[in-house]
Every structure is written in C-alpha cells, then in structure tokens.
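tokens incoming
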C-alpha cells in the first residue's frame, strides 16, 4: 500500500478512535493496526482491522430497526430520542445513505473506501 494511503487511513483511524460512538472493540482493533504499521504483522493485522470495521459499521436499515426497538429506546435515552434517531436515519436513507452517519461510522466508511489499497 502506498504511503499516501497509510497516512490517510492513520488519520481516519485516529478520528475513529476519538469518536464518542466508537466501540471498545473497534478502538482496540484500531490501536493494534496502528501498532503493526511497518512491522511483519502489518498485513495480517490489516486484514483483522478491515474485518472488524466491516462487522461494526451500522447499515442504515439496521440503525432504523434498532432505533425503533425497545433496546434502542434504552440506548438513545428514551422513546422520544430514539424516535428522532429513527426519523433522521430514514431521512438520510431517502437521500441515499447506506450507513449510519455517526462520527464512528463515517470514519469507518472512509477507511473502507481504501480497502482495496490496504489489502494490496
């Protein structure tokens, strides 16, 4: 992978790790990938990192379903807040969004755009 790609993904990985919506598992995977850069573990760790990101990004339909559920109401701080999340998700889906637009999912989507370059 090119130095330009590495620098871009490092920047987006740091944004991901700083996002309040980034899970602990994703942060750990991101840090492991950062720590592997330039080592003999880099290729294997890159594959693990990509797999973690693909598993964690929230497809828009999943977000809508979750926000409309009882569990979503608990996570989002009540039925009203969850309803607002669901309404927002439906709005961005209508505009063409494939994934959640929280800071973590945005960073993940940007990293995954470089998947082909990362796995070279």
């Amino acid at each position: 992978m090119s130095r330009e790609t590495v620098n871009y993904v490092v920047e987006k990985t740091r944004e991901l790790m700083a996002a309040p919506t980034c899970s602990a598992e994703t942060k750990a995977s991101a840090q492991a990938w950062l720590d592997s850069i330039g080592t003999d573990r880099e290729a294997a760790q890159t594959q693990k990192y990509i797999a973690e990101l693909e598993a964690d990004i929230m497809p828009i339909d999943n977000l809508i379903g979750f926000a409309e559920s009882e569990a979503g109401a608990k996570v989002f701080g009540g039925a009203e807040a969850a309803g607002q999340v669901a309404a927002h998700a439906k709005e961005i889906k209508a505009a063409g969004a494939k994934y959640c637009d929280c800071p973590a999912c945005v960073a993940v989507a940007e990293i995954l755009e470089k998947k082909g370059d990362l796995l070279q």
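note: The chain has a mean pLDDT of 96.
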